[in-house]
Each structure stands twice: as C-alpha cells, then as structure tokens.
Amino acid sequence: MIRKLALLAVTLLIAGFAANSFSAMQPGKTDTVFNRRFIPKIKPMMPYDQIVGMVGNQGAKTREEKSGAATITSYRWNGGKKSVLNIRVSGGRLIDATILAPNGHTYYMGKKGDVKDLGD
Questions:
Q1: For residue 59, which of 41, 90, 22, 84 has the smallest C-alpha distance?
Q2: Distance CA 100, CA 78 (A)
Q3: To the nearest 5 percent, what fractions of the chain are helix, strand and coil?
Q4: 12 — phi, psi (to 5°)?
Q5: How far is the C-alpha of 118 from the C-alpha of 56, rounded, in Å?
Q6: What is the pLDDT of residue 20?
Q7: Residues 6 or more apart whose Cβ sits within 8 Å of residue 60
Q8: Which in 5, 53, 102, 116 has the greatest CB count within 10 A?
Q9: Digitized pLDDT (tens) for each residue of the chain, 120 residues in all
Q10: What are phi and psi of 55, to 5 degrees?
Q11: What topology is assigned to 28-117 in CATH?
Q12: Extents of the domains making up the chain
C-alpha cells in the first residue's frame, strides 16, 4: 500500500513538472521580467529570432498588417511579475517595443532606439 502511494505521489509530481514545462513553452508566455532594465537590451532592427533567444520562446502573434509593400507583425509576451512586452516587426526585424513593467510604468522604445517612460 505504501509503495502504491509513493508511486502515485511520484507520478503526480512528474505530471506537475511536465505541466509547468509545457505552459512555459507556450508562445507568448515566459518567466522573463520585462522592466526598465530589460528594454535597453533590445535595439531597433534587432532580428526577431535574437529577441526570442533572449526571452526564451516565441511571442504570441497579435496582429499582422500591410504597410505598403511591407508586412508589420505584432507579438506579445506575458512575462514574470505581470509584466508585458509588445513588439512590432517588419522583415524579421524589430521596429519598436512597448513594455508594461511590474511597477506599473509603460516604457516605449522608438525606431531610433530612444526610450520614453510613458508613466503609469
């Protein structure tokens, strides 16, 4: 009986770890905290794949729009401590980014790399 309970406990423990690993791999979900210290790590024209490498997984595609001959795609990540990263990409490269930080402030990085604190 004790052996069966131990086996059941181990099975539930493994299932719990697998569920957490699966949710961490979902596009747009990460433990990365997006804040004022994170935004200088990304630069205009940085390849999307490089951002994915920093964040740990693909962003959730939220929008795709045509602008002349170019397609602009928007991605979103929900990060640790209820932070959020939104980026816009064209031709596989970053155009601009917005971060909602845990402190409630919103930071915007424009096409020239300038970072603005939009407040809360």
A1: 84
A2: 10
A3: 30, 35, 35
A4: -65, -40
A5: 26
A6: 46
A7: 27, 28, 29, 75, 76, 77
A8: 102
A9: 676 555 545 555 565 554 444 445 789 999 999 998 998 899 999 999 999 999 999 999 999 999 888 999 999 999 999 999 999 999 999 999 999 999 999 999 999 999 999 987
A10: -80, -35
A11: Beta-lactamase Inhibitory Protein; Chain:B, domain 1 (3.30.1450)
A12: 28-117
Tokens of 55: 């964040």
Q: Name the token pair of 44.
A: 């205009």
What secondary structure letter does DSSP report for 56? S
Question: Both tokens of residue 46?
Answer: 């940085």
Three-state SS string across 57-105, please? CCCEEEEEEEECCEEEEEEEEECHHHCEEEEEEECCEEEEEEEECCCCC
